Amino acid sequence: MLNAGQRRKVEENIGLVHKVISDKVHGPYQLGMYSREDLFQIGCIGLCKAVATDQGGCFSTYAYRLIWNEICDALVSSSRKRNREMAMEVLPEMGTYQEHDNKDLQISLQNILDQAEGMVPAFMRKGIRAMFLMEKGYTSREIGDRMGVKANLVCAWVSKARKYLRELTELRQIAEEYGYGTDKAG
Description:
This protein is mainly alpha-helical. The chain has helices at 4-12, 15-24, 36-53, 59-88, 103-119, 122-135, 140-147, 151-166, 169-177.
């Protein structure tokens, strides 16, 4: 809870939040699931934290960093959540191979994915590999850094790989065998 003096300092420095957003957020691809208004509110939380923990010195520099850190934390968190959700969409009826208790199902799914990875063009292999990394919690940007490409290219590869895997006959057969997408599914 901020006291009256701290609230006044927040009001006097609210422009810093706008400055951080205009300096650091360029284009809609950086917004993630947030609007600019959402980022402004998140930045205001960072500003309040800066005011509450200020110990003197150059306040604007200190506050700028805390505002940007707060926004970055929110964007990274939403990106990881979105990537996990994207990875879970590989087989909408079945989820991903790692979430099943049935070891035979996990092995079957892994074998099919390994075989598919060996039979497809290079970009599709990269997409399948990226899906595995996303399932482990890596962001598109982190995967892109590992592969030496931009995050949006990783997303394109994953999208194409997901579409391919959804149409893969072997995966459909496993889904039926284990009761996913059929009347046996609960």
